[in-house]
Inverse folding.
């Protein structure tokens, strides 16, 4: 598995869990907790100390599009039109309605907060006279977390003619909501209607302000600590545009994509704590569409690392875009700063309403069955962790449910030896100490990899990129041996399972070998060398694995099988195959995974499931703001079927490792795009999901939705 986190200006996954290069899914496939919303310009005016009149959103459809409104109903169509308008020249027209509740709807979950009162208003006009009066309503569909869907009328009025009528009413809700949708409905399902000038206004104070956080609204006319990241660009307060109030922060004169506004958050953030991060951005007039992202820079002992909190977000001059995500400060840092940058180009842009807020402390469920206890005597159950997860609620979760751990990043080559001869053991040692203290097995990941290896490894004696020469081959293999012996000397008495080489197969190559720098300089000799040196250095009791992804695919599986068979014939000490098993809800077939396990077992090898997770999307483009419950139910049934297969193969499998502790710490939040995904057994609050209960007590999982045959 992969991530790139010390190379300047590269993108790394928030929370430091593992970014994989594009295409790792293989031939089967064509990033919130990130969410991205669009909002037109709004204003924010405080009327008095005790009264709030804060405009959350206005929708006049003057840009010629639907302003994020969507059709509600199977056949419903909506479009911005000029044939009727209450204000301006456009309105939104809903046609092809077949039910009273069909029409135009707006997802307002990201806009509204519990226990806050809002005033919602809008103008509606029927498309033609009606013999029977129509009851027209503004309604909110509410889907409470763990509850039943309800529908709350905000305002209603009866009309039979074609004049504009105003609907206006108050709305509030309490508790957590999985979905909130505002829509216009009419009792006459056959009649089209227009809607215009919809406005949502906050009219009561927010009950609690962000704690242990930062809010930047720029209403005092200052930059509030924000400044230029690179020094050449200009960062200043502007009253030319604002999402709320009168001011925003304008950045101009950018000369690099990574130049932009920066804020030092060192004093606010604490290692191991999780934060929500939110900002609104809009391009300056005259700029072409661009993709903006929100990133973090961590500086520690002279080294810098860069992490993406919110991925590339399409932004224009036409409206404010919401960048929203979560970030965990997982590593030591002398300074931490947040900044905005673009994927390409140097567009000028506004930023407003930045918020950084501490997520409330987590707590595990202590009265549920231990996950590893369910499979005692079959195989160990592991999880990937970072050093910060050895403490607090994360540490408690690991101790309760897992009897094996692997370092998500801390033991990769660039983490341990970022420059030649300079080893950083601190985070790896912390994980090892935690595991030993609590009697947990440890998997080592990874000694050799084409990714996350210091550039120095592949430079010749003159500091230039290596070319395929005998001299460079010897130098590279000597460096490989030095690295392995140093690592094994430190951990050979506490780690028994080692990922020696990682991801060496590329099924698109004629011989199936990845054309990595290792291969370009040494051929396949680096693989043989790595295993032989590890056996010598780690001792006869160490179990040595070759690890790869998509091992279920027949072509890739067979290339890997042939490689391992040939190495074994040469006496190379390989004890097992690691199957990463990053799968999805729709594929691969569990039978394919089982066939691969049996094929390698026929060589007398052990099998380990080394990086298991189950992404919910079937492609690389879809994005949900709220994951449908039906998908989580399907995920649970698929996890059950998968573990049933593992149990059948228990004589051939010694370990099953889940790639992450919880949905709040998954690399799939930013890969292949920034989006909300929930691939693991526990949610971001460390609560057991249906996927967990499918293994612990299937009776607590609802039946599969109709039409599914898992």
């Amino acid at each position: 598995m992969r991530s790139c986190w010390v190379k300047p200006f590269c993108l790394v996954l928030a929370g430091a869990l593992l970014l994989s290069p594009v295409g790792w899914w293989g031939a089967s496939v064509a990033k919130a907790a990130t969410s991205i919303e669009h909002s037109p310009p709004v204003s924010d005016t405080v009327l008095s100390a005790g009264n709030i009149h804060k405009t959350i959103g206005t929708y006049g459809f003057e840009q010629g599009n639907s302003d994020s409104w969507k059709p509600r109903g199977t056949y419903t169509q909506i479009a911005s039109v000029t044939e009727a308008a209450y204000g301006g020249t456009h309105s939104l027209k809903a046609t092809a309605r077949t039910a009273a509740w069909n029409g135009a709807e707006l997802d307002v979950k990201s806009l509204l907060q519990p226990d806050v009162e809002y005033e919602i208003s809008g103008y509606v006009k029927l498309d033609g006279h009606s013999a029977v009066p129509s009851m027209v309503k503004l309604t909110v569909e509410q889907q409470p977390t763990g509850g039943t869907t309800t529908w709350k009328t905000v305002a209603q009025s009866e009309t039979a003619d074609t004049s504009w009528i105003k609907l206006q009413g108050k709305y509030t809700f309490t508790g957590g909501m999985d979905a909130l949708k505002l829509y216009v409905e009419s009792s006459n399902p056959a009649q089209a209607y227009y809607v215009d000038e919809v406005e949502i206004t906050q009219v009561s104070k927010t009950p609690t302000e962000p704690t242990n956080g930062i809010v930047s609204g720029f209403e005092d006319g200052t930059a509030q600590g924000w400044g230029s990241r690179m020094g050449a660009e200009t960062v200043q307060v502007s009253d030319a545009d604002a999402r709320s109030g009168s001011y925003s922060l304008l950045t101009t004169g950018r000369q690099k994509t990574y130049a932009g506004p920066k804020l030092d958050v060192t004093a606010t953030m604490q290692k191991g704590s999780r934060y929500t991060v939110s900002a609104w951005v809009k391009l300056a007039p005259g700029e072409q569409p661009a993709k903006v992202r929100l990133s973090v820079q961590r500086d520690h002992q002279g080294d810098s690392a860069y992490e993406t909190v919110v991925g590339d977000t399409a932004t224009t001059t036409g409206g404010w875009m919401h960048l929203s995500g979560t970030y965990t400060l997982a590593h030591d840092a002398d300074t931490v700063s947040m900044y905005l940058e673009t994927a390409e180009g140097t567009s000028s842009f506004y930023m407003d309403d930045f918020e950084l807020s501490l997520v409330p402390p987590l707590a595990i469920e202590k009265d549920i069955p231990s996950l590893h206890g369910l499979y005692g005597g079959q195989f160990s159950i592991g999880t990937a962790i970072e050093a910060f997860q050895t403490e607090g609620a994360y540490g408690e979760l690991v101790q309760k449910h897992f009897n094996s751990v692997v370092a998500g990043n801390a033991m990769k080559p660039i983490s341990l030896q970022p420059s030649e001869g300079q080893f950083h053991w601190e985070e790896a040692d912390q994980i090892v100490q935690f595991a030993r203290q609590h009697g947990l097995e440890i998997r080592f990941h990874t000694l050799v990899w084409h990714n996350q290896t210091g550039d120095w490894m592949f430079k010749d004696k003159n500091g230039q990129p290596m070319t395929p020469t005998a001299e460079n081959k010897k130098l590279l293999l000597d460096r490989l041996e030095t690295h392995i012996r140093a690592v094994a000397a430190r951990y050979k008495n506490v780690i028994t399972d080692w990922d020696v080489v990682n991801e060496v197969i590329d099924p698109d190559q004629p011989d199936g070998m990845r054309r990595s720098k290792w291969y370009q300089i040494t051929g396949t000799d680096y693989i043989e060398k790595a295993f032989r040196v590890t056996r010598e250095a780690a001792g006869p009791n160490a179990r040595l694995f070759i690890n790869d992804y998509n091992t279920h695919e027949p072509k890739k599986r067979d290339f890997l099988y042939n490689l391992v068979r040939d190495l074994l014939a040469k006496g190379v000490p390989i004890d097992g195959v690691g199957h990463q098993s990053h799968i999805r809800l729709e594929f691969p077939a569990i039978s394919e995974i089982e066939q691969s396990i049996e094929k390698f077992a026929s060589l007398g090898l052990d099998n380990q499931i080394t990086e298991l997770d189950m992404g919910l999307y079937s492609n690389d483009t879809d994005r949900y703001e709220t994951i449908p419950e039906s998908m989580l139910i399907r995920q649970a049934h698929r996890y059950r079927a998968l573990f049933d297969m593992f149990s059948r193969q228990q004589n051939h499998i010694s370990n099953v490792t889940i790639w992450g502790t919880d949905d709040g710490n998954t690399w799939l939040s930013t890969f292949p795009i920034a989006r909300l995904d929930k691939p693991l057994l526990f949610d971001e609050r460390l609560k057991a999901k249906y996927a967990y209960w499918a293994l612990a007590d299937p009776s607590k999982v609802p039946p599969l939705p109709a039409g599914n045959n898992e």
